[in-house]
Every structure is written in C-alpha cells, then in structure tokens.
Design a protein that fits this description.
The protein has 172 residues and is mainly alpha-helical. It folds into 2 domains: 60 residues, Helix Hairpins, CATH 1.10.287; 77 residues, Monooxygenase (Up-down Bundle), CATH 1.20.1280. Helix content is 70%, strand content 0%. It is globular. The two termini are 29 Å apart.
Length: 172
C-alpha cells in the first residue's frame, strides 16, 4: 500500500468516519497543496504539490466509499480482498443475489416492485456496513477473514444497487 489515507487526513483508521469531516479536511488540505499555488515555485515544490494534491484526491475517493474504505483498512492490516482472483462466496449470499436478480427481471416495468427491492438491498448494505464497523473498528479485531467476506459481499450489493437505480431511471 503506497499511502495511508487516514494519516493523510489525520483521521483515526476506522470504518465508521464522519464524511462531512472528511470533506472539510480535504478542502482545507487541497487549498494548501493545490498546484496553482506553486506555479512559480521550484520544480521540487511543484512536483510535491502535484503529488500531494493527487494523494488528497485519491484519499477522498477511497475513504468516502464504504467498500474502498474497508479494503483500505484491510490492506493496512495486510489483508487483501483478492476480488480479482478469489471467486468463492457464501452460498446463501449467492442464492439471495440470484433471487433478487430474478425479482428485478420480473419487476421491470413495475417501479413499485423495483423500489421495494431497492429498499431490501439498502437494508442489507446497511447491515453489512454496521457489521464491518464492528469488525474493523474494535481494538482487538480478530475476525478479519469475516471482514474480508463482508467487503466482497458489500461490493456485490453496491453493484446491484446501481443496477436497481438504472432500472428505476435514477443514475448515481
């Protein structure tokens, strides 16, 4: 991992963060490090401003998204989510995904059905995010394998939520 974004924003390395505080810290730091402020500076100053502002923007993007924030926390602890190579998932979770996808196919053209399904998915996402906070924010995090599984499941749920938004005509 190249950068600890929590340190960059002087935040505790926790899953549960205040997104408004994160945005305020980003604004404060980007004002200081914006490359335009260093246009007349030395090449080293310009390079550092470009690098730091890029890190700040990357950090904001990573930390404001629950999936990428959890991945980052796990990576800081030496755990990879291996989403590119590990295709194993909990069978019950996969069955639920299949049932929801069938329900979406049947609900196309019926906005109330898609809206109800979106509410179920949002509930599931909230529950998984709460579970992640419990696993990643404790002083003695012992079940990082479960946290890894939850991150991967949350990734599926976010993708499905975007599909539901598209099905109702809303775009994220």
């Amino acid at each position: 991992m190249a950068r600890n974004y929590f340190e960059l924003f002087e935040l505790p390395a926790r899953f549960d963060i205040d997104l408004k505080d994160l945005a305020a810290r980003h604004r404060e730091r980007i004002r200081v490090w914006h490359p335009d402020r260093y246009a007349q500076g030395s090449s080293e100053e310009r390079r550092r401003a470009v690098t730091t502002s890029a890190d700040l923007n990357d950090g904001l993007k990573v930390l404001r998204n629950p999936v990428s924030r959890a991945r980052h926390l796990l990576a800081l602890r030496g755990i990879s989510t291996d989403e590119d190579t590990d295709t194993s998932m909990d069978a019950d979770f996969l069955m639920q995904q299949m049932a929801w996808r069938e329900r979406l196919e049947e609900g196309v053209g019926r906005p109330e059905e898609v809206t109800a399904l979106a509410a179920l998915v949002a509930q599931s996402r909230d529950a998984k995010e709460s579970a992640l906070a419990g696993l990643l924010d404790g002083e003695q995090t012992t079940d990082l394998d479960r946290a890894r599984e939850l991150v991967r499941e949350l990734q599926f749920l976010e993708r499905f939520a975007r599909e539901l938004d598209c099905a109702t005509g809303e775009v994220l």
